[in-house]
Amino acid sequence: MENFTFYAPTYFDFGKGAEEHVGTLVRRFGGSKVLLHYGGGSIKKSGLYDTVKRCLKEENIDVVELGGVKPNPRSGLVYEGIELCKKEGVDFVLAVGGGSTIDSSKAIAAGACYDGDFWDFYCKKASIEKALPVGTILTIAAAGSEGSMNTVITHEETGIKTGAASEVLRPRFSILNPEFTCTLPPYQTAAGATDIMIHVCERYFSNTTEVEVTDRLCEALLKTIIHEAPRVIENPNHYEARANIMWAGMLAHNNVCGVGRVQDWASHHIEHELSALYDVTHGAGLAVIAPAWMRYVLKINPHKLVQFAERVWDIEPQATEEETALKGIEAFESFLKSIGMPLTFDEIGADEKDAELMTGKLLRSKPTEGNYVKLTADDVMKIYHYAATGEM
Amino acid sequence: MENFTFYAPTYFDFGKGAEEHVGTLVRRFGGSKVLLHYGGGSIKKSGLYDTVKRCLKEENIDVVELGGVKPNPRSGLVYEGIELCKKEGVDFVLAVGGGSTIDSSKAIAAGACYDGDFWDFYCKKASIEKALPVGTILTIAAAGSEGSMNTVITHEETGIKTGAASEVLRPRFSILNPEFTCTLPPYQTAAGATDIMIHVCERYFSNTTEVEVTDRLCEALLKTIIHEAPRVIENPNHYEARANIMWAGMLAHNNVCGVGRVQDWASHHIEHELSALYDVTHGAGLAVIAPAWMRYVLKINPHKLVQFAERVWDIEPQATEEETALKGIEAFESFLKSIGMPLTFDEIGADEKDAELMTGKLLRSKPTEGNYVKLTADDVMKIYHYAATGEM
Q1: Contact A98, A142 (CB under 8 A)
Q2: Model confidence, pTM
Q3: How far is B274 from chain A (nearest CA, A)?
Q4: With contact defined as beta carbons under 8 Å apart, do A282 and A191 qualify?
Q5: Distance (Å) from the C-alpha of residue A295 to the closest C-alpha of chain B?
Q6: Low-confidence ranges of chain A (pLDDT < 50)
């Protein structure tokens, strides 16, 4: 185990009716004038928008609104939000929605306390030292942004999709009412479950030895999703299954299961190029990329894939490590398919002819990607090739 | 799953050399004059005391000292600490030691901000609204107080051992360097591992349904201890095993694996009467009480014991649920024995003739104990009886 620090000071208010506390929570964490940031009409349809407005009004909190966040959130709206915060003297950013809305809110919160271009944080020209406090009301279990220090934004002019992270971006509070996730369509629900699993896998697939406690936590979260995801696909209104997925989604990415180890993140970054180019749902892109990544690295470094097979998918040891690991990957692919996820380029409208473009963007400023296996451009091309053709 | 809130804003600095950051961490979290609270000579022997003094001096932090904390920490030293804090204008309490030292520090921190008798918090006459900030350097993996909102104190005059809890008691930071736990003797190490396991079990044994994610997390922590504890008994200097136990110990009691469910706590409370009367090591007392509790409740409410057997101890389903559960309890008992823990009254110098006295103290202000099964005085007497005689 490596040395680490862990600091996750988000206040979680979880369960039915938790959204009623939004006014008092904004007050508790220092807000008096909020930017209310959200996506499309779903929070208006569900009544959540009205509840939030009422609760903020009851606490005499002023509200400036900015809707219109899209999946794979864009830089344009972030610039607009930053300007609005500065002009209006906003002192708190309240995100109501899924991971895209929260990521956009974090970008705005950081940009509002910075004199330069907020994109400096994403292209690593500057680090985020200060941000407006952020609070969230989560409506999609997937990204884990409600408890994480991360944000991912797509720059509209360059098509670059990339992330930034800072301790100051952890939300001050997050309200998690699983009821609001019940209206999410099956495909989006399954994509969310996939995203959660791959957040865990990016931490799990590590060469750091002697990390039994975090390995076991990772396996616990994966087993939870394996149990719960089919239940919500079967019955979208299954509150209890939604609740377990929602809490697992937070834990999968607040890093409690990732401390003390070198993490991978190749699947996420390889996928980001897909969703930046085709605007595919991130979790669906991961369902295509992660198993392809597993099949590719299996030949080079199988040890953790063997553990993944045995402990997560209950595969009995086969004649060789490679066979055991392969059975684990197959079980994972079957699972993804069973919840309606795609496994190939075709199914998400991607085209192998763009593989070179995507690989070039991915490795624009570094020689390799990932850590479990350090992937060169050639390796990444082969992973895209497998995802496109099913051939290694 | 039940509604819940979860707020664990402790900054953890984990690993070799982390103690060097104590000065900057006290400063970061607002301290300028600390009460340095510790136990006996072990931190002087290890050099930790000198390091702490040097690091605080480097940050120009004033220090008032109070050593002498004993296992099962007493009210007398708490009164002394409170007076010292008030007289000296202390603004931060720094605990250097194990759970007893941290629990004593939390009591002092709360008492220093209160005009009445600090014991009011423990006998539930008052709730803790305010406390001096507490920081810790942990030297024993067991109590989980380094990340929890809990404190347990024994009142010297009445012999009552009981707890208090408050959000404001969560340490602001905790420094966890597993190296400092390597000098702990095998018996104390095993008692710590037992305490960690029972912190998990108190949460695990619940009638709340649909708590897959927290069930899985509980099982992950139990499996970690089952794997790691024998390794440190075998080789006390096994840094990696010590590290996994230390982080598991924090997670076992910061409540991340206990949210959204009714918890039990009967074993802890039944044991507190033992350690209050005989001054036995808490974890060793738990090794005697928890399996006895399991054997007793098995007849009344076996369902979670079956899951415990199958998922934690890998027991194959037997002819009846009761048989499956019993095999799990037996596996747990064998494990405890293998790491050198006692299982009977005899081994800890307890006497069944005190069972009535202990039961009376335990149920002095409530009709039943625990939640998984609500135990009457008669039930508690039978559990003590089993622990004393091995007969149900």
Answers
A1: yes
A2: 0.97
A3: 31
A4: yes
A5: 27
A6: none
CA angle A56, A184, A109 (to 5 degrees): 40
Q: Do A219 and B220 touch (CB under 8 A)?
A: yes
- Give me the residue label for tokens 């054997």: B295
The C-alpha torsion from B126 through B129 and B132 to B133, rounded to 10°, is 130
Mutate to test the interface with A, among B2, B4, B6 (most CBs of A within 10 A): B6
- Amino acid sitting at position A95: A
CA-based end-to-end distance of chain A: 34
Chain A residues whose beta carbon lies within 8 Å of the beta carbon of residue B251? 213, 217, 256
Torsion angles phi and psi, residue A99, rounded to 5: -60, -35
Q: Cα A307 to chain center, whole Å?
A: 24
**Chain A positions touching chain B (beta carbons under 8 Å):** 1-18, 209-214, 216-217, 219-221, 223-224, 227-228, 240-241, 243-244, 247-248, 251, 256, 259-260
Report the percentage of chain B scoring pLDDT > 90: 97
Q: Would you put residue B91 in left (φ > 0), alpha (ψ -120 to 50) or beta?
A: alpha
pLDDT in tens, A135-193: 999 999 999 999 999 999 999 999 898 999 999 999 999 999 999 999 999 999 999 99
Which of B217, B254, B316 is the best mutation test for A, with the most CBs of A within 10 A?
Answer: B217
Q: Model confidence at B279, in pLDDT bands (50, 70, 90)?
A: confident
